[in-house]
Amino acid sequence: MLYIVGLGLGDERDITLRGLEAVKQCDMVYIEAYTSLLSFGLSSNGLSTLEKLYGRPVILADREMVEEKADEILSAARASDVAFLVVGDPFGATTHTDLVVRAKKLGIAVIVVHNASVMNAIGICGLQLYRYGETISIPFFTETWRPDSFYEKIQSNRNLGLHTLCLLDIRVKEPTLESLCRGKKQYEPPKFMTIKTAIGQLLEVEQTKGESVYSEDTLCVGFARLGSEDQIIVAGSMRELQLIDFGPPLHCLVITGNTHPVEEEMLDFYKIKRD
Ligand SMILES: C[S@@+](CC[C@H](N)C(=O)[O-])C[C@H]1O[C@@H](n2cnc3c(N)ncnc32)[C@H](O)[C@@H]1O
């Protein structure tokens, strides 16, 4: 049996009772460590906090393991009960559907335990979840790679008056280019995109494309560490948000579409107050 268990957004206490019961009865417990980050981080300390609560060892599954060595997880799930833990909700990231499909094709029973996700926690700012268009991901630009397909998606959303959730790049355990050439993998230090970097890249693309999809004056909402005790939520123009230090990861950004009066009333609570 494969249990896919959402951990929620804050810390180890956000697992549901149903999720905790599942984890406690499993023979092996993996935690996915590349599409998110628990508020206490995935340090050895963080893992031992989880291990203490669950009363069993937790195996860190990085992108290589989940994408290249999923067989290991699946063959364990064929023979015994295995839990695969995901920060947020298991389906708040596109990557985990593949594991479910593979398990089902092998005839392994899958049980999903849901939890809060960034996809619904953004509702706290007052913008209606019903009024969002396609979610976009903003990858880190490099000297030679500056993908901008998100621009057309924001354009389509804004043409329909819809809000856009921008998920910001997470680079954990990425092999360095030199090590790939040499055939022996060495890894870059982890990198998490900030709201400031995301807005910088968005404005650069707007400048190149010049179709006035958004500007420095466009109203956005920046979120940091949603679901944690020190979460930060600020509404303001791109220009204003670029000047704010949102602190440690994770960050995400919403570009507003047309706003309804009730949405505006709620957003006012998060606007930068000037005396
Ligand atoms: C693949 S998504 C979501 C993953 C997770 N499974 C979920 O359901 O929330 C990962 C991205 O969501 C955003 N994100 C995730 N958790 C967040 C949090 N607590 N606060 C702010 N942004 C967050 C970040 O931009 C991050 O790069």
Summarize the structure.
This protein has 275 residues and is an alpha/beta fold. Helices cover 34% and strands 19% of the residues.
Could you explain how this protein is built, in words?
The protein is of the alpha/beta class and 275 residues long. The chain folds into 2 domains: 2-116, 3-Layer(aba) Sandwich (Cobalt-precorrin-4 Transmethylase, domain 1), CATH 3.40.1010.10; 119-267, Tetrapyrrole methylase, C-terminal domain (Methyltransferase, Cobalt-precorrin-4 Transmethylase, Domain 2), CATH 3.30.950.10. It contains 11 helices and 12 strands. It has helices at residues 17-25, 44-54, 63-68, 70-79, 96-105, 118-121, 150-159, 177-182, 195-209, 238-242, 261-268; strands at 2-6, 28-32, 59-61, 82-86, 110-113, 136-138, 164-168, 170-171, 191-192, 219-224, 232-237, 251-255. Strands 3-2-4-1-5 form a 5-stranded parallel β-sheet, with helices on both faces. Strands 6-7-12-10-11 form a 5-stranded mixed β-sheet. α2 (44-54) links the parallel β2 and β3 (59-61). The protein is globular, with a radius of gyration of 20 Å. The protein starts with a strand and ends in a 7-residue tail after the last helix. The model has no long low-confidence stretch (mean pLDDT 90). Bound molecules: S-adenosylmethionine. S-adenosylmethionine (SAM) binds next to α6, β7, β10 and β12.
